[in-house]
Amino acid sequence: MEWSFKTAGELLSAMRAGAVTSAELTDEAIARIERDDPSINAICVPDFDRARAAARRADEARARGADRPLLGVPVTVKESYDMAGLPTTWGMPPHRDHVPAGDAVQVTRLKAAGAVVLGKTNVPLGLQDIQTFNEIYGTTENPWAHGRTPGGSSGGSAAALAAGFGALSIASDIAGSLRTPAHFCGVHAHKPTLGLAAGRGMVPPADPAWPVEPDLAVVGPMARSARDLTLLLDVMAGPDPLTYGVAHRLQLPPARRERLGDFRVLVVEEHPLIPTSSAVRAGVHRVATALADGGARVARHSPLLPDLTEAATLYMQLLISGSVARFPIDSDEQLRTQAAELSAEDRSLDAVRLRALQFSHRDWLAADHGRERHRQGWRRLFTEFDAVVCPITPTPAFPHDHTPNPMERRIDIDGASHPYFDQLVWAGLATMPGLPSTAIPAGRSPEGLPVGVQLIGPMYEDRTPLRLAELLEQEIGGFQAPGGAMTTSFALSAGPASSGSACAATGS
């Protein structure tokens, strides 16, 4: 039997029953990576020797009667997490030789749970793109269609899961970086409530690994099933032991509903600032139909939904001002001049982004106050609804676009061109107020590309959208490997990635 596309839960059951060992699972995963990853380039930093040693230790522990939440399960880790002895570069050439001495807190938790880490997955430069490519590691291909992006910034993790390279991955999200790759690659992901999972050690290579939680950013799980998301979130969740963990212990409330027919769901498919493609609308409709057929109360409109235009504006202000504070840009004076030349009536998202590059602390505080108003609006909405279903991006995976200035890139939506970064408005809907959001597969486009939707839930009630995701997976299906069953080899539409394989790029 081949195990590469089994869920983590299935692998754990098989190991507990003695049907397979962690060493066998790890060897199979490594063989698949060595065979198939040269054309995908998802695993940018392999760690096979240590993985095999960890698998042997897992089997020995199980033979002694031990059992842990992920004991013996092969997994991957996003390149941006510190792992002792492996490079953490964030795809930034000046830091290609940066090797941290210790593990990120989430890597520590993975290992403590018994997971076997196969290696690290590729990212875009500075984690600041909706695609995955950089000068150090090259370009990651979407396993469903070479020539298209797997998304970003966790594109390597999503591509690895879709290709059968490990059962789970840990990644991060500030602009849809968990949800967009899941949507583009047909897998599952969960953006936790802001602050729910400690992020220490998931920092740019120039920064110390202090217990600091950046605004908007979260770390979270990716998987091939909804139930596996819950399994991994239970390992990841909890405060940093150096800060809140000194005095606080996490106890997530149970899901609000257990049966599909008991859920109250608001479905939103159109945004006032950017259209939704027909393929993504079809995915939203498929989920809405499954909800209605299952007896859930489904609404298409509600006056309680916070204003989407204002939400997008606040999100861009907080995102861009925070980003430029962490990664200063060289052309500050030129941008200041361009912002001054904007018409006062220009409220486009391009104008919002340009002005946010020059935000003062007072400007940021005003945006933060707006965020608190929206949080209160979401609290009111979630007295009437349990979850909101909406797109993750307006389109399925799009062709690679490596135009050097991302502000000059465009996104095609059913034949019409739109600003590249405008597609972030759907991701920002949950990110700006810090809400949990679960990305699930929702079918495929007419071209055969995966389409996903997100399920947004109440703050700190992460188990509610996760439970809804499990129930919908039972109704509409979940992960389907590219090329069908994928039991022997890939049925991919193009040759190797033009930027070279991960091993070639790293010299490993």
TrEMBL record:
Where does the signal peptide begin and end?
none
Gene3D superfamilies tied to this protein: Amidase signature (AS) domain
Q: Which NCBIfam families match?
A: PRK06170.1 (NF004816)
Q: Which GO CC annotations does the UniProt entry carry?
A: endomembrane system
Q: Which residues form the Amidase domain?
A: 24-464
> Which InterPro entries does this one have?
Amidase_CS (IPR020556), Amidase_dom (IPR023631), AS_sf (IPR036928), FAAH2 (IPR052739)
Q: Give the originating organism.
A: Amycolatopsis tolypomycina
Q: What's the protein called, per UniProt?
A: Amidase
> Do you know which Pfam families this protein is assigned to?
Amidase
